[in-house]
Protein backbone atom coordinates (compact mmCIF):
# COMPACT_ATOMS: atom_id res chain seq x y z
CA UNK A 1 0.00 0.00 0.00
CA UNK A 2 1.18 3.51 -0.85
CA UNK A 3 0.77 4.99 2.61
CA UNK A 4 2.06 8.39 1.50
CA UNK A 5 -0.84 8.74 -0.95
CA UNK A 6 -3.29 8.12 1.88
CA UNK A 7 -1.43 10.56 4.14
CA UNK A 8 -1.34 13.51 1.74
CA UNK A 9 -4.86 12.95 0.45
CA UNK A 10 -6.31 12.80 3.94
CA UNK A 11 -4.15 15.72 5.06
CA UNK A 12 -5.76 17.82 2.31
CA UNK A 13 -9.22 16.53 3.21
CA UNK A 14 -8.69 17.32 6.91
CA UNK A 15 -7.49 20.82 6.05
CA UNK A 16 -10.66 21.40 3.99
CA UNK A 17 -12.75 19.96 6.83
CA UNK A 18 -11.13 22.30 9.36
CA UNK A 19 -11.56 25.30 7.07
CA UNK A 20 -15.23 24.54 6.37
CA UNK A 21 -15.96 24.31 10.10
CA UNK A 22 -14.02 27.32 11.34
CA UNK A 23 -15.09 29.64 8.50
CA UNK A 24 -18.58 29.74 10.04
CA UNK A 25 -17.57 30.39 13.66
CA UNK A 26 -16.45 34.07 13.55
CA UNK A 27 -19.76 35.48 12.33
CA UNK A 28 -22.21 33.14 14.12
CA UNK A 29 -23.16 35.81 16.71
CA UNK A 30 -23.83 38.30 13.88
CA UNK A 31 -25.79 35.66 12.00
CA UNK A 32 -27.90 35.08 15.11
CA UNK A 33 -28.76 38.78 15.19
CA UNK A 34 -29.61 38.59 11.50
CA UNK A 35 -32.09 35.75 12.01
CA UNK A 36 -33.92 37.21 14.99
CA UNK A 37 -31.86 37.01 18.19
CA UNK A 38 -32.13 40.19 20.25
CA UNK A 39 -29.02 42.11 21.36
CA UNK A 40 -29.95 41.28 24.97
CA UNK A 41 -29.85 37.49 24.51
CA UNK A 42 -27.42 37.06 21.60
CA UNK A 43 -24.60 36.11 24.02
CA UNK A 44 -26.73 33.33 25.47
CA UNK A 45 -27.64 32.05 21.99
CA UNK A 46 -23.99 32.25 20.90
CA UNK A 47 -22.90 30.10 23.82
CA UNK A 48 -25.61 27.53 23.19
CA UNK A 49 -25.03 27.38 19.45
CA UNK A 50 -21.23 27.15 19.69
CA UNK A 51 -21.11 24.54 22.46
CA UNK A 52 -24.00 22.30 21.38
CA UNK A 53 -22.16 20.51 18.56
CA UNK A 54 -19.12 19.92 20.82
CA UNK A 55 -21.35 18.30 23.44
CA UNK A 56 -23.16 15.98 21.02
CA UNK A 57 -19.96 15.09 19.17
CA UNK A 58 -18.15 14.31 22.43
CA UNK A 59 -20.75 11.71 23.38
CA UNK A 60 -21.12 10.19 19.90
CA UNK A 61 -17.42 10.02 18.98
CA UNK A 62 -16.80 6.63 20.70
CA UNK A 63 -19.87 5.21 18.91
CA UNK A 64 -18.68 6.36 15.50
CA UNK A 65 -15.22 5.00 16.33
CA UNK A 66 -16.74 1.60 17.08
CA UNK A 67 -18.65 1.72 13.79
CA UNK A 68 -15.41 2.57 11.97
CA UNK A 69 -13.64 -0.48 13.43
CA UNK A 70 -16.63 -2.69 12.62
CA UNK A 71 -17.67 -1.59 9.14
CA UNK A 72 -14.67 0.29 7.81
CA UNK A 73 -12.97 3.60 8.54
CA UNK A 74 -13.19 4.79 4.94
CA UNK A 75 -16.94 4.23 5.01
CA UNK A 76 -17.23 6.30 8.21
CA UNK A 77 -15.10 9.02 6.62
CA UNK A 78 -17.49 9.28 3.69
CA UNK A 79 -20.53 9.09 5.98
CA UNK A 80 -19.26 11.99 8.08
CA UNK A 81 -18.12 14.15 5.15
CA UNK A 82 -21.32 13.92 3.12
CA UNK A 83 -23.48 14.28 6.24
CA UNK A 84 -21.60 17.43 7.30
CA UNK A 85 -22.00 18.89 3.80
CA UNK A 86 -25.77 18.38 4.05
CA UNK A 87 -25.93 19.87 7.57
CA UNK A 88 -23.90 22.93 6.56
CA UNK A 89 -26.31 23.52 3.69
CA UNK A 90 -29.20 23.40 6.17
CA UNK A 91 -27.57 26.38 7.89
CA UNK A 92 -28.34 28.38 4.73
CA UNK A 93 -32.05 27.64 5.17
CA UNK A 94 -32.57 28.51 8.85
CA UNK A 95 -34.86 31.40 9.76
CA UNK A 96 -34.50 31.72 13.55
CA UNK A 97 -32.05 30.89 16.39
CA UNK A 98 -33.88 27.69 17.35
CA UNK A 99 -33.46 26.27 13.86
CA UNK A 100 -29.75 27.19 13.89
CA UNK A 101 -29.35 25.43 17.26
CA UNK A 102 -30.97 22.31 15.76
CA UNK A 103 -28.56 22.48 12.81
CA UNK A 104 -25.61 22.67 15.18
CA UNK A 105 -26.91 19.67 17.12
CA UNK A 106 -27.16 17.76 13.83
CA UNK A 107 -23.61 18.83 13.07
CA UNK A 108 -22.52 17.11 16.28
CA UNK A 109 -24.39 13.96 15.21
CA UNK A 110 -22.74 14.02 11.77
CA UNK A 111 -19.22 14.53 13.12
CA UNK A 112 -16.40 12.03 12.87
CA UNK A 113 -14.52 13.07 9.74
CA UNK A 114 -11.20 13.91 11.39
CA UNK A 115 -11.08 10.85 13.74
CA UNK A 116 -11.83 8.54 10.79
CA UNK A 117 -9.08 10.18 8.74
CA UNK A 118 -6.62 9.87 11.64
CA UNK A 119 -7.53 6.19 12.08
CA UNK A 120 -6.91 5.42 8.39
CA UNK A 121 -3.54 7.19 8.50
CA UNK A 122 -2.56 5.31 11.67
CA UNK A 123 -3.63 1.98 10.15
CA UNK A 124 -1.77 2.45 6.86
CA UNK A 125 1.44 4.19 8.02
CA UNK A 126 4.53 2.14 8.94
CA UNK A 127 5.41 2.41 12.61
CA UNK A 128 8.68 4.22 11.93
CA UNK A 129 6.79 7.05 10.19
CA UNK A 130 3.84 7.26 12.60
CA UNK A 131 4.95 10.37 14.49
CA UNK A 132 5.73 12.28 11.31
CA UNK A 133 2.38 11.30 9.73
CA UNK A 134 0.27 12.31 12.72
CA UNK A 135 2.29 15.54 12.92
CA UNK A 136 1.38 16.29 9.30
CA UNK A 137 -2.30 15.64 10.07
CA UNK A 138 -2.12 18.01 13.04
CA UNK A 139 -0.44 20.61 10.83
CA UNK A 140 -3.12 20.53 8.14
CA UNK A 141 -5.86 20.69 10.76
CA UNK A 142 -4.22 23.82 12.16
CA UNK A 143 -3.85 25.32 8.69
CA UNK A 144 -7.56 24.73 8.10
CA UNK A 145 -8.29 26.47 11.39
CA UNK A 146 -6.22 29.48 10.31
CA UNK A 147 -7.56 29.70 6.75
CA UNK A 148 -11.19 29.10 7.72
CA UNK A 149 -11.89 32.30 9.69
CA UNK A 150 -10.07 34.43 7.09
CA UNK A 151 -12.02 32.78 4.29
CA UNK A 152 -15.31 32.98 6.17
CA UNK A 153 -14.87 36.65 6.99
CA UNK A 154 -14.00 37.52 3.39
CA UNK A 155 -16.79 35.49 1.82
CA UNK A 156 -19.43 36.74 4.24
CA UNK A 157 -18.40 40.30 3.36
CA UNK A 158 -18.67 39.60 -0.38
CA UNK A 159 -21.62 37.20 -0.61
CA UNK A 160 -23.33 37.63 2.76
CA UNK A 161 -23.28 35.44 5.86
CA UNK A 162 -26.06 33.11 4.72
CA UNK A 163 -24.33 32.08 1.49
CA UNK A 164 -21.17 31.20 3.44
CA UNK A 165 -22.97 28.07 4.65
CA UNK A 166 -23.35 26.94 1.04
CA UNK A 167 -19.64 27.51 0.39
CA UNK A 168 -18.71 25.59 3.57
CA UNK A 169 -20.91 22.70 2.41
CA UNK A 170 -19.19 22.71 -1.00
CA UNK A 171 -15.73 22.70 0.59
CA UNK A 172 -16.33 19.67 2.82
CA UNK A 173 -18.21 17.92 -0.01
CA UNK A 174 -15.22 18.41 -2.32
CA UNK A 175 -12.78 17.16 0.30
CA UNK A 176 -14.88 14.04 0.85
CA UNK A 177 -15.09 13.31 -2.87
CA UNK A 178 -11.30 13.60 -3.19
CA UNK A 179 -10.82 11.24 -0.23
CA UNK A 180 -13.35 8.78 -1.63
CA UNK A 181 -11.56 8.66 -4.98
CA UNK A 182 -7.96 8.40 -3.76
CA UNK A 183 -7.89 6.87 -0.26
CA UNK A 184 -7.42 3.10 -0.02
CA UNK A 185 -8.08 1.37 3.26
CA UNK A 186 -5.54 -1.27 4.35
CA UNK A 187 -6.53 -4.86 3.69
CA UNK A 188 -8.19 -6.66 6.58
CA UNK A 189 -8.86 -3.28 8.17
CA UNK A 190 -12.47 -4.20 8.96
CA UNK A 191 -12.33 -6.43 12.00
CA UNK A 192 -14.68 -8.26 14.25
CA UNK A 193 -15.56 -5.94 17.10
CA UNK A 194 -15.77 -7.70 20.43
CA UNK A 195 -19.15 -8.77 21.70
CA UNK A 196 -20.95 -6.30 23.91
CA UNK A 197 -21.77 -2.65 23.58
CA UNK A 198 -20.33 0.76 24.17
CA UNK A 199 -19.98 0.22 27.92
CA UNK A 200 -17.80 -2.83 27.29
CA UNK A 201 -15.63 -0.78 24.93
CA UNK A 202 -15.24 1.92 27.56
CA UNK A 203 -14.37 -0.62 30.26
CA UNK A 204 -11.70 -2.11 28.00
CA UNK A 205 -10.29 1.31 27.17
CA UNK A 206 -10.19 2.48 30.78
CA UNK A 207 -8.41 -0.72 31.77
CA UNK A 208 -5.50 0.49 29.61
CA UNK A 209 -3.69 2.73 32.05
CA UNK A 210 -1.49 4.52 29.54
CA UNK A 211 -4.40 5.25 27.19
CA UNK A 212 -6.31 6.78 30.11
CA UNK A 213 -3.29 8.92 30.95
CA UNK A 214 -3.13 10.17 27.35
CA UNK A 215 -6.84 11.01 27.36
CA UNK A 216 -6.46 12.94 30.61
CA UNK A 217 -3.46 14.85 29.24
CA UNK A 218 -5.36 15.67 26.05
CA UNK A 219 -8.38 16.92 27.99
CA UNK A 220 -6.14 19.03 30.24
CA UNK A 221 -4.12 20.67 27.46
CA UNK A 222 -7.22 21.37 25.34
CA UNK A 223 -8.94 22.91 28.35
CA UNK A 224 -5.94 25.15 28.99
CA UNK A 225 -5.65 26.09 25.31
CA UNK A 226 -9.34 27.03 25.07
CA UNK A 227 -9.43 28.70 28.48
CA UNK A 228 -7.82 31.83 27.05
CA UNK A 229 -9.75 31.97 23.77
CA UNK A 230 -12.58 34.27 24.88
CA UNK A 231 -10.17 36.48 26.86
CA UNK A 232 -7.53 37.37 24.28
CA UNK A 233 -9.48 40.23 22.68
CA UNK A 234 -10.12 41.76 26.10
CA UNK A 235 -6.48 41.35 27.14
CA UNK A 236 -5.33 42.99 23.91
CA UNK A 237 -7.66 45.93 24.51
CA UNK A 238 -6.12 46.21 28.00
CA UNK A 239 -2.62 46.26 26.52
CA UNK A 240 -3.64 48.80 23.86
CA UNK A 241 -5.61 50.93 26.28
CA UNK A 242 -8.59 50.97 23.90
CA UNK A 243 -11.18 48.61 22.42
CA UNK A 244 -10.76 50.12 18.97
CA UNK A 245 -9.33 47.53 16.57
CA UNK A 246 -9.05 44.92 19.34
CA UNK A 247 -11.10 42.31 17.46
CA UNK A 248 -8.91 42.49 14.35
CA UNK A 249 -5.70 42.52 16.38
CA UNK A 250 -6.94 39.58 18.45
CA UNK A 251 -7.61 37.57 15.29
CA UNK A 252 -4.09 38.24 14.02
CA UNK A 253 -2.41 37.51 17.37
CA UNK A 254 -4.46 34.37 17.98
CA UNK A 255 -3.54 33.07 14.52
CA UNK A 256 0.17 33.42 15.38
CA UNK A 257 -0.03 30.39 17.66
CA UNK A 258 -1.72 28.44 14.87
CA UNK A 259 0.91 29.47 12.33
CA UNK A 260 3.68 28.47 14.71
CA UNK A 261 1.95 25.15 15.31
CA UNK A 262 1.58 24.47 11.60
CA UNK A 263 5.33 24.99 11.20
CA UNK A 264 6.35 22.92 14.22
CA UNK A 265 3.94 19.95 14.31
CA UNK A 266 5.70 17.69 11.76
CA UNK A 267 9.07 18.57 13.32
CA UNK A 268 7.82 17.44 16.72
CA UNK A 269 6.63 14.21 15.11
CA UNK A 270 10.07 13.53 13.66
CA UNK A 271 11.81 14.34 16.96
CA UNK A 272 9.46 12.03 18.82
CA UNK A 273 10.13 9.23 16.35
CA UNK A 274 13.88 9.53 17.00
CA UNK A 275 14.07 10.50 20.67
CA UNK A 276 10.86 9.14 22.19
CA UNK A 277 7.49 10.78 22.59
CA UNK A 278 7.72 11.08 26.38
CA UNK A 279 10.66 13.42 25.85
CA UNK A 280 8.63 15.43 23.33
CA UNK A 281 5.72 15.65 25.76
CA UNK A 282 7.97 16.84 28.55
CA UNK A 283 9.69 19.52 26.46
CA UNK A 284 6.46 20.65 24.80
CA UNK A 285 4.59 21.01 28.09
CA UNK A 286 7.46 22.80 29.82
CA UNK A 287 8.07 25.17 26.90
CA UNK A 288 4.38 25.96 26.47
CA UNK A 289 4.03 26.50 30.21
CA UNK A 290 7.01 28.84 30.36
CA UNK A 291 5.79 31.03 27.48
CA UNK A 292 2.18 31.01 28.69
CA UNK A 293 3.38 32.05 32.15
CA UNK A 294 5.51 34.81 30.59
CA UNK A 295 2.48 36.41 28.94
CA UNK A 296 1.45 37.70 32.36
CA UNK A 297 4.42 40.08 32.18
CA UNK A 298 3.70 41.41 28.66
CA UNK A 299 4.23 45.16 28.59
CA UNK A 300 2.74 45.74 25.15
CA UNK A 301 1.04 44.06 22.23
CA UNK A 302 4.36 43.28 20.52
CA UNK A 303 5.75 41.30 23.44
CA UNK A 304 2.45 39.48 23.76
CA UNK A 305 2.47 38.58 20.05
CA UNK A 306 6.01 37.14 20.22
CA UNK A 307 5.12 35.08 23.30
CA UNK A 308 1.96 33.77 21.61
CA UNK A 309 4.04 32.60 18.66
CA UNK A 310 6.57 30.86 20.93
CA UNK A 311 3.74 29.32 22.94
CA UNK A 312 2.27 27.91 19.71
CA UNK A 313 5.63 26.37 18.72
CA UNK A 314 5.66 24.25 21.88
CA UNK A 315 2.03 23.48 22.67
CA UNK A 316 1.43 21.89 19.27
CA UNK A 317 4.05 19.23 20.04
CA UNK A 318 1.73 17.74 22.64
CA UNK A 319 -0.91 16.55 20.17
CA UNK A 320 1.04 14.26 17.78
CA UNK A 321 2.91 12.84 20.78
CA UNK A 322 -0.31 11.98 22.63
CA UNK A 323 -1.90 10.49 19.50
CA UNK A 324 1.17 8.38 18.71
CA UNK A 325 1.46 7.01 22.24
CA UNK A 326 -2.28 6.26 22.30
CA UNK A 327 -2.03 4.39 18.99
CA UNK A 328 1.06 2.40 20.02
CA UNK A 329 -0.52 1.28 23.29
CA UNK A 330 -3.70 -0.13 21.81
CA UNK A 331 -4.58 -2.96 19.48
CA UNK A 332 -4.47 -1.99 15.76
CA UNK A 333 -8.02 -3.30 15.39
CA UNK A 334 -9.37 -0.69 17.81
CA UNK A 335 -7.87 2.47 16.37
CA UNK A 336 -11.22 3.85 15.29
CA UNK A 337 -12.39 3.64 18.89
CA UNK A 338 -9.12 5.15 20.14
CA UNK A 339 -9.50 8.23 17.95
CA UNK A 340 -13.15 8.40 18.94
CA UNK A 341 -12.08 8.64 22.58
CA UNK A 342 -9.39 11.24 21.82
CA UNK A 343 -12.05 13.27 20.01
CA UNK A 344 -14.29 13.05 23.08
CA UNK A 345 -11.46 14.26 25.34
CA UNK A 346 -10.65 17.05 22.90
CA UNK A 347 -14.23 18.28 22.59
CA UNK A 348 -14.88 18.13 26.33
CA UNK A 349 -11.78 20.27 26.83
CA UNK A 350 -13.01 22.69 24.16
CA UNK A 351 -16.28 23.04 26.09
CA UNK A 352 -14.75 23.26 29.55
CA UNK A 353 -11.95 25.74 28.83
CA UNK A 354 -13.99 28.83 27.88
CA UNK A 355 -16.37 28.26 30.81
CA UNK A 356 -13.52 28.11 33.34
CA UNK A 357 -11.73 31.04 31.70
CA UNK A 358 -14.82 33.21 31.92
CA UNK A 359 -15.42 32.41 35.59
CA UNK A 360 -11.79 32.73 36.69
CA UNK A 361 -11.27 36.03 34.86
CA UNK A 362 -14.46 37.36 36.45
CA UNK A 363 -13.07 36.60 39.92
CA UNK A 364 -9.40 37.58 39.60
CA UNK A 365 -9.06 39.42 36.29
CA UNK A 366 -7.59 38.40 32.94
CA UNK A 367 -3.85 38.79 33.51
CA UNK A 368 -3.56 36.24 36.40
CA UNK A 369 -5.17 33.59 34.17
CA UNK A 370 -1.86 33.36 32.29
CA UNK A 371 -0.15 32.39 35.56
CA UNK A 372 -2.71 29.63 36.08
CA UNK A 373 -2.44 28.22 32.54
CA UNK A 374 1.35 28.41 32.63
CA UNK A 375 1.44 26.70 36.01
CA UNK A 376 -0.84 23.88 34.85
CA UNK A 377 1.25 23.24 31.74
CA UNK A 378 4.50 23.23 33.75
CA UNK A 379 2.95 20.80 36.23
CA UNK A 380 1.86 18.49 33.39
CA UNK A 381 5.41 18.56 32.02
CA UNK A 382 6.74 17.61 35.42
CA UNK A 383 4.28 14.72 35.74
CA UNK A 384 5.21 13.37 32.32
CA UNK A 385 8.92 13.59 33.21
CA UNK A 386 8.43 11.72 36.48
CA UNK A 387 6.32 8.98 34.86
CA UNK A 388 8.16 8.27 31.61
CA UNK A 389 11.63 9.82 31.50
CA UNK A 390 13.38 6.52 32.30
CA UNK A 391 11.85 4.69 29.34
CA UNK A 392 13.96 4.39 26.22
CA UNK A 393 10.97 5.13 23.96
CA UNK A 394 7.65 6.18 25.42
CA UNK A 395 6.07 5.54 22.02
CA UNK A 396 6.47 1.85 22.84
CA UNK A 397 4.46 0.66 25.78
CA UNK A 398 4.17 -2.88 27.15
CA UNK A 399 1.21 -3.62 24.89
CA UNK A 400 3.15 -2.69 21.75
CA UNK A 401 6.29 -4.46 22.94
CA UNK A 402 4.42 -7.71 23.56
CA UNK A 403 2.92 -7.64 20.09
CA UNK A 404 6.37 -7.42 18.52
CA UNK A 405 7.82 -10.38 20.41
List its traits:
mainly alpha, globular, 0% strand
Helix content: over 70%
Order of SSEs? HHHHHHHHHHHHHHHHHH
| Total E-strand runs | 0
What does the overall shape look like?
globular
Task: Characterise this structure.
The protein is mainly α. The protein contains 18 helices and no strands. Mean pLDDT is 83; it is low at 392-396 and 398-405.
In brief:
The chain has 405 residues and is mostly helical.
Topology summary:
Elements: H1 3-22, H2 28-34, H3 42-71, H4 73-93, H5 97-110, H6 113-124, H7 130-159, H8 161-182, H9 198-206, H10 209-227, H11 232-240, H12 246-275, H13 277-294, H14 301-315, H15 318-328, H16 335-364, H17 367-388, H18 398-404
Helix pairs in contact: 1-6, 1-7, 1-8, 2-3, 3-4, 3-5, 3-16, 4-5, 4-6, 4-8, 6-16, 7-8, 7-12, 7-15, 10-15, 10-16, 10-17, 11-12, 12-13, 12-14, 12-15, 13-14, 13-15, 13-17
Amino acid sequence: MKWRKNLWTLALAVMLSGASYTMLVPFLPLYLLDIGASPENVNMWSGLVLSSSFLVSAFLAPYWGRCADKSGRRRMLLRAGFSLAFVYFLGYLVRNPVELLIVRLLQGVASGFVPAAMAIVAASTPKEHMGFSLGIMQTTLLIGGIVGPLLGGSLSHIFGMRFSFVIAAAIIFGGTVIAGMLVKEPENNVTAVQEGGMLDDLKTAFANRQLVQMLCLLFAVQTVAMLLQPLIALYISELQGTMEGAALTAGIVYSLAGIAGAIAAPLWGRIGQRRGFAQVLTIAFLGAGMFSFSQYFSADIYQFSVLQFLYGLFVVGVFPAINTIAVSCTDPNSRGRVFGLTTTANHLGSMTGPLIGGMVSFWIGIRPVFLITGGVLLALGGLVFLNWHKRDDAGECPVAAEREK
